[in-house]
Amino acid sequence: MFQLPKLNYEFNALEPHIDAKTMEIHYTKHHQTYVDKLNEALGKHPELFEKSSLRQAQDKLESLLSNLEAVPENIRLAVRNHGGGHFNHSLFWSIMTPNAAGEPTGELKVAIEKDFGSFIAFKEQFSKVAVSHFGSGWAWLAKDKDGKLVIFSLSNQDCPLSQGLKPVLGLDLWEHAYYLKYQNRRAEYIEAWWNVVNWQKVGENYKS
Ligand code: MN
Predict the structure, then answer these.
(1) In this predicted model, what pLDDT tens digit does every residue of 127-182 receive, in sequence order?
(2) If 20 and its partner were Cys, which of 12, 128, 139, 206 is the partner (CB 3.0–4.6 Å)?
(3) 20-94: CATH, from 1.10.287.990, 1.20.1270.10, 3.40.640.10, 3.40.630.30
(4) Ligand 1 mean position to 172 CA, how many Å?
(5) Residue pLDDT, tens place only, 72-100
(6) Pick the CATH number of 106-207 from 3.20.20.80, 3.40.50.720, 3.55.40.20, 2.40.110.10
(7) Residues paired with 153 in a beta bridge
(8) What is d(CA 107, CA 185) in angstroms, rounded to the nearest whole number?
(9) How far is the CA of 89 from the centre of ligand 1 (A)?
C-alpha cells in the first residue's frame, strides 16, 4: 500500500552538509523499513485502507496519526512508530534541497517574526531544542490550532499530528541521520542542516 516517496535530488546533492552515504542508507534502508513495517501492520486491518488510492492512503495515514486512539489496538503502536516514521521521513526529504534560499519569505517569515521575534531568534531556539533533546527523536516547528508557531521535540517517531499540531518543519535527531559524518557532534550536524532547508516548501507547509 505505502511506498517510498520520490526523492527530488540525488543522494550526494546535499553534500557537504549531509553526506551521500548517510542519505542513501537513511532513505533506502531506514525509511524503507518504516514503510515495510507499516504495510505489514495494516495488512492485519485491510478494511482501513480498502479501495484507497495512494493519495487517499496518505490522507488516511494522517488521519490515523491524528487520532491514534481510533486505531485498532493490535496495530496502534506499529502505526505510531512506523506510520510516524513514514510520515516524518517523507516530510524530512521534502523540506531539504540543494538549492536552499537561506531564509523564509512571505507569510512564514511574518509568522516567524511575530512568534519568535526574528529569524535568528527562531533558529537559535530551534537549534537549542534539537541539541538538547535526549536520545532518538525529532525537533519540530509546528502550527497549533490557533495558527501560532511552536518549537518542541518528540521522542522516537512520534508525530506532531498526534499532539493536534500541524508539522511545518522537522529535523531528524536519530543518530542514523548524522553519525557517519558527524559521529557524536550533533550540534555540527544541526548547524550544517540549516544550509539545506527548503524554505519555499516549509512556507507551503505553513500555509496549507
Ligand atoms: Mn531517520
Answers:
(1) 999 999 999 999 999 999 999 999 999 999 999 999 999 999 999 999 999 999 99
(2) 12
(3) 1.10.287.990
(4) 6
(5) 999 999 999 999 999 999 999 999 999 99
(6) 3.55.40.20
(7) 139
(8) 33
(9) 6
Q: Enter the pTM of the model.
A: 0.97
> Ligand 1 center to residue 117 CA distance, Å?
30
Q: What does R_g of the chain's alpha carbons equal in angstroms?
A: 17
Integer Cα distance of 18 and 56 in angstroms:
32
Q: How many whole angstroms from 14 Cα to the centroid of ligand 1?
A: 16
Q: What is the 176 CA–ligand 1 centroid distance (Å)?
A: 6
Q: Is the pLDDT of residue 71 over 80?
A: yes
C-beta neighbour count of 40 within 10 angstroms: 12
Question: Could you tell me the distance, in angstroms and rounded to a whole number, from the CA of residue 157 to the centre of ligand 1?
Answer: 9
Determine the distance separating the centroid of ligand 1 and the alpha carbon of 127, expressed in angstroms. 18
Q: Determine the residue type at 122.
A: F
Cα separation, 154 vs 152, whole angstroms: 7
92 alpha carbon – ligand 1 mean position (Å): 9
The dihedral sign for the CA sequence 3, 7, 11, 16: negative
